[in-house]
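Re-run requested by the PI after the first attempt was lost when the workstation crashed. Everything re-entered from the original request form. Ligand of interest: iron/sulfur cluster.
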Amino acid sequence: MEYWKNENEPIQAFVKLFEAAMIDDELTSGLKKVNQLILFDYTEDGPNCCFWMDCRGGNLSVGPGKPSEEPDMTMSLSADDAHRSWSNKLNPVMAITRKKIRVKGSAVGLLKLAPKLKKVAEIYAVILKDLGWEDKILK
Amino acid sequence: MYGNTGKIIVVDLTTGKIEIASLPETDYLSYIGGSGLAARYFWERGNFQADPLSAEAMLIFMNGPFAGLKLSGASRSSVAGRSPLTGNWGDSSCGGYFAPELRYAGFDGIVLTGKAEKPSLLVIEDNAVCIESAEDYWGKGIESVNRSLKDKFGKTWRNLIIGPAGENQVKYALILNEAHHAFGRAGFGAVMGSKNLKAIVVKASTKTMTLADPEAFETLRKELNPRIKEALASDVMRVNGTAANLEGGVYSGDVPIRNFTSNFWQEMAESLTGSTLSEKYLTHGGACAYCTIACKRNVRITEGIFAIPDGPGPEYETIVSLGSLIGSMDLAAVCKAGRICNDLGLDTITTGATIAWAMEAFEKGDITAADTDGISLIWGDMETVIDVLIPAIAARTGKLGRLLADGSAAAARRIGKGSSDYTAHAKGLEVPAHDPRGGGHGLALTYAISPRGACHVAFPMLFMEMGACYYPEIGFEYELEPKTDENKAEAAVIAVALGSIENSACFCQFADREITIPEWVALFNTVAGYGWDIDAMMLAGKRVFYLKRLINYRFGRTAADDTLTPRMLEPARDGEPEGIAINLDAMKAAFYRLMEMDPIQGIPTQSALIACGMAEEFEHI
Ligand code: SF4
């Protein structure tokens, strides 16, 4: 991994990112519209390197590891590409076309997040700073 | 001949003479089918001096080699000839159900010249072709004529119909199949109208086709159809239509607003996006023949002044052209405006763009109530658009209807006062609903160099800049950054060949993104037995592009016409692309060089033509 020392680091950052996103006024409504249970799967970088986000039924929650239920959608990629993605430095369409991102299930809900990626990246930069990982912020 | 039938119907509507003609296999090998084969036919037999709306003008419908083969997205067809809107080579692609039926009847295409004495109907039933009176249908909207034709001939007969706009030779009149699927662009509905031809109907009694290698094709088909169906983009479009990502487009500055004066309108994004259409008005989806993507929409609006019964709904281009482009974010109004355009037979893209230009001209005082019969043109005033403007254009009535019925470029020329500067077109064809300042600068290049004018589907540049293309076998590994000119000329070289292949094969660009280059070659070989390798296929694509450029040259077009209007070259005023201007000249210069085209004449050099096996074509210029 280019950006992470171990498989726990990315999950720590991403879970915190979405905990913050879920209380952000601009992002909350978009996240609720996703209306899916999503597994972000980075297990190519470690067996526990994954987290889930539950946006179903108007409730929002996020946690490390695999969800207890079958996800509606699984997005598999490397933890480095996920870092680029949440930093808004990875074109998701291009990454999917080139099989850097593999999607199982419907992406209809996730498309609702596409316009908000810039905002997500802003929050992500703050989270990285809070974690003392300023060096990981992609310019 | 395999795959293709090699036969076309040639009709002289003046004399009523109908012939079944054969096309040489070499024409298919060199120009594939669809708009490429149509260009070849026009090059050999078309009248380059004829006004597009005169009896001498030629109107060509041409299938691709895959029509009717139950392959997702592959059963579209092309209409082509000289565009009455632009005076250039024009072609337009349509999905729906006409192409397979024509193929099953035994034909690859239909060529029409002349002018019928009375409103007419061309009837094709297997090998039998005849002309009947259409006087009962003349003056009627497409929806009712579609119903009447279904009643008269039967539900399984397929049709192409023009509306009153085509009859009145509005220069951007369309042709509809089954009252839903459009040959939208470049005004071929007006050409049909000028020939007094209201409709074409076709029915085949068998579905027999002879393929070069049926087993190999079947294996490929069984692999491709599920892949196309299950692709992420297909799933998204099946659920929310082609406007599924409109909201994302607004945030990147791709969606044009108020005649391209803005690249960002936050409230509009959610109001007009595909998921809103699904939630509020969608009754059911729909598909072109054999397509597993099924991106089409059917909508109903039950209450309010924009109520409409269940029927065809708008796709992305219509939503933007009759929505944000004219200052509206009222999705119900957009649905109704689109429905009326369809029924009257108007291309929604040029209709929206022409109205948008008029609204800006009115706001600026360049046109006044004296030019509009007292009608005020106000951004977003959809009642006026629906009740007054669209009907007036289709009927060519009143000062305003007459002014706008020839498109924005002609209207601006008539008004003067610098109003051409804020038209949005290339070579007279209005820019579709992707603003290249936000959508991608390569798109500006391909709008400019496209033979038919500003077009987002002539070549797959939009998809390339989005990141949806990866073709290492032909050198397309670029990671394009949309809002720059970097590598855009290089990408455009591949895009023009690939787009020419797609449009000549009459394959839907939403479906064929899932097909690899070796699979494309295998499709042509297993179906039509072309015996191509990748280079031969790409050369055919390049040849088609070159030929269309040569046709335009014979119409008097040169490299000077490969441009966009000043409005399109202004730096974006707001949104994500704010302040960014497009460096069109540099991209064009590089493109001509890479394509071995003369930068003044805008046509391929003699050596480039010879290298493509087009020495004979060079002799004609
Ligand atoms: S994707 Fe849509 S437009 Fe293309 S062939 Fe299928 S239904 Fe028709």
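Saved to the shared folder this time. The CA atoms of residues 12 and 133 of chain A lie 12 Å apart.
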